[in-house]
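Spend some time on the protein that follows and explain the fold to me:
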Amino acid sequence: MTRRAAAGHAYVRVGPIGPGSQTLVAGWSGLRHEGHGRCGEHNAVTGTLIAAGNGAPVPILETADIIMADGTDRSGPGRWLRQYPGCGIAVSRTGPGIYSAAARDGVPCPVTVSGPDSAGPLACAAFAYGWLAAGWPLDRLRPALLRVGPVSAGRPEPGERLFFRFAYCDASGPETPESGATPSTDSAVRTCSASGAPSAS
């Protein structure tokens, strides 16, 4: 089995479920700020997720797909992954506009976010969640620079169910042996469960 190294362009749109909701848009290597990106609509992972700050009540943290630690937390994202096994991505702030994102299968990845600082944790966490759901490990996110568009939502309410759409274009270049999911230019839109596992739709 072969697959390309990573996405050439990718973006994530996240917002509360319901009409008239604000939407956060973050992209890598080619975001168009109107939110349509450069990616074909047929290469995407969609679904819902629950995001929580580390100060949320324990029952919400236990069901959260992504956990965002505030700037006062110096323990790193690994703590939240260990404490809450249902969490797929944990993010902590390490400096102005700089975050550390961690998943269960690798070391934390530093991510720089340009755009509204208040949207940084959610943008970083949701993008990393979509990236993993599309089949790539975080260490393929290079350079790890996200650009957040002007239409953005701040931190979600604790336990709020969010809709997300992660769209991508495969990178051109040499193919390398890999195991696991294989995003491709003719892949169908996939839905993502709360646990982050993609399934065909």
About this structure: Residues 120-133 form the longest helix (14 residues). The CA atoms of residues 71 and 93 lie 5 Å apart. Helices lie at 58-61, 78-83, 120-133.
